[in-house]
Amino acid sequence: MTQRKTLLWLQAGSCGGCSMAALEQGGAGLFAELQNLRLDLLWHPSVSEATGAEVLKILADIETGAVKLDILCVEGSILRGPHGTGAFNRLSGTTRTLLDLTRALAQHAETCVAVGSCAAFGGIPAGDPDPTDSCGLHYDGAEPGGVLGVAWRSRSGLPVVNVAGCAPHPGWIVETLGALAAGDLKASDLDAFGRPLFFAGHLAHHGCSRNEFYEFKASARVLSERGCLMEHLGCKATQAIGDCNQRAWNGGGSCTHAGFACISCTSPGFEAARETHVTPKIGGIPVGLPLDMPKAWFMTLAALSKSATPARVRQNAEADRILVSPKRQK
């Protein structure tokens, strides 16, 4: 039987949304999932009963080696300001900064996990202007480095495992922890940004309920309409990694299923977008094209698709409900 392992969860510059996402995992909830994975939660600032001196002792025991730390989870951006001191974000009741604490604990952890795009890349707190000088653990935006440095590797030899998303799917979080608990996550299982391939090997576009409209380039013009959201309403699902439309979120649905455009929240720099629900265009052509598709091919296929759009698809695309049902096959 797999030996029980320990997990510590820190919250830095965070809204707490990633923790909220994790709590939704599974029919029995997060804590039952952790028990099933043989993971002992040493401390989580939002859900653990330990406070004050009890917490400081847990942290001190990890740093002295008295308590083994297998998985360090960090949620939220690391605030380096002002002037590299990290003093904008201190551990409550102490003078110690989260910048210093994160660096110290990461050296003792068997594996380090960035939970959410803030911890992975900087995320929302790193949006311009950024007086807090926020960044991720192993990345500063799309640039390697972050607070741990380019060459950093955990005791297991892995880089920071980036469970990106704003917030990440609860399954992404717990399945990553499960793979680590079982010793079944290798560097080859991560993409170029350290995101686990079991979800990063997909696009948010895969499985989208609006795919028929995408195929025929039958587009919605306002958010209440059923058509594809890419051409006019800023959807980046064809460019965004994640199996978002292949697994239910908290019981059902996804962003595009609910009628909202994908903002590519699993990607570094997503917070820099100046407009949402608007597709940037040059000469009427969307700037963001599907990954791996040359612009000339896309334009040719789009023209062919539009010319072949069934009347049913065209009418339904610009309606808030199905107006025309598929005809029965003769």
Automatic annotation (TrEMBL):
GO cellular component terms given for this protein: [Ni-Fe] hydrogenase complex; cell envelope; ferredoxin hydrogenase complex; membrane
E.C. number: 1.12.99.6
Cellular localisation: Cell envelope
UniProt binding sites for [4Fe-4S] cluster 2: H205, C208, C228, C235
Domain NADH:ubiquinone oxidoreductase-like 20kDa subunit: 15-179
Coiled coil: none
GO annotation, biological process: anaerobic respiration
Main location: other
UniProt keyword annotations, A-Z: 3Fe-4S, 4Fe-4S, Cell membrane, Iron, Iron-sulfur, Membrane, Metal-binding, Oxidoreductase, Signal
Cofactor: [3Fe-4S] cluster; [4Fe-4S] cluster
Keyword S-adenosyl-L-methionine: no
Keyword Signal: yes
Record GO terms (molecular function): 3 iron, 4 sulfur cluster binding; 4 iron, 4 sulfur cluster binding; electron transfer activity; ferredoxin hydrogenase activity; hydrogenase (acceptor) activity; metal ion binding
Binding site for [4Fe-4S] cluster 1: C15, C18, C118, C166
Residues the entry annotates as binding [3Fe-4S] cluster: C244, C262, C265
InterPro entries hit by this protein: Cytochrome-c3_hydrogenase_C, NADH_UbQ_OxRdtase-like_20kDa, NiFe-Hase_small_C_sf, NiFe_Hase_small_N_sf, NiFe_hydrogenase_ssu
UniProt similarity note: Belongs to the [NiFe]/[NiFeSe] hydrogenase small subunit family.
Subunit relationships: Heterodimer of a large and a small subunit.
PANTHER family: HYDROGENASE SMALL SUBUNIT, NIFE / NIFESE HYDROGENASE SMALL SUBUNIT FAMILY MEMBER
Name by which UniProt lists this protein: hydrogenase (acceptor)
Organism of derivation: Rhodoblastus acidophilus (Rhodopseudomonas acidophila)
